Amino acid sequence: MATKCGTCLNLNLKEKSSYGDKYWCTERHNYFEPTDYSCSYYNEDPNRVKKGNDCYITTIICDVLGYDDNCELLNTLRNFRDNYLKIHKEYYDLLLEYDIMGPKISHAIYNDENNYPLALIIFKAYLAPCANYIKDGHFEDAINIYINMVHHLMNRYDITPIKIDKSTMTINMDLLGKARTLHNPI
Fold it and tell me: Does 130 fall in a domain?
C-alpha cells in the first residue's frame, strides 16, 4: 500500500481547510486530503501509521480519519459495549459477530483505495448518530444503526456472514466485542 498524506507528520490534522476535507501541509504550504499520495517530503508519523486494526471502527476513526484512539466517540462506543452490551446476554451474539467479522471488514477498509470518502460516510451516517443515541439513552436505536452499518459494510466488501457455533467455543468475556480472537474449540 502506498504512503498517504494522512500518515505524514507534515500534514497538520488540526488545521483544516474551510473548503472540504483538506488539511495544511507544513512542507508544501498547501491543503491536501489525508488520502492523497505522499510526496518526497513524506515524514512518517509512527503514531498515525498503522498496519490496520482488527476493529474496523478504530480503523475508520483512527487509521483513516486521523482521530486519536481516546477520542470521545470511541470512548462512548467502548463504554456502551462494556457497560451495556456485555451485561445483557441477548447482545452476546452481536458482540461475537463483531469479533469474527470485524477483522475482515477492517482489512477491507484499510486496503480500500477510496477508504477516506467511505470513512466520512460511515462516520456521519452511522457512528456519530449511534454515539448520540447512546448519550441520549436510546440504546435500541443505537444498536439498530450499528446493525445497518455492519450490513452496509458487508455488502460493500462482499463479506458473507459466518454462522457461529457457540457449542464449540469458550468465550473470554474480557475480550468480547473487541474484535480479537476470543474463542477456542473445546
Answer: yes
Instruction: Please indicate, yes or no, whether residues 45 and 66 belong to a single structural domain of this protein.
Output: no
List, edge to edge, every strand of the sheet that includes 11-16: 11-16, 23-25, 30-32
Distance between CA atoms of residues 86 and 95, nearest Å: 8
Q: What is the largest CA-CA distance in the chain?
A: 59
Cell, residue 79 = 463504554
pLDDT digits (tens, 9 = 90+) for 128-145: 999 999 999 999 999 999
Determine the Cα–Cα distance for residues 40 and 58; give it in Å rounded to an integer: 28
pLDDT in tens, 25-37: 888 888 888 777 7
**If residue 73 lies in a helix (H) or strand (E), which one and from where to where?**
helix 72-83
**Could you tell me the pTM of the whole model?**
0.65
Residue ranges making up the domain that contains 126: 56-168
CA-based torsion, 34, 37, 38, 39: positive or negative: negative
CA 91 to CA 149: how far, in whole Å?
A: 16
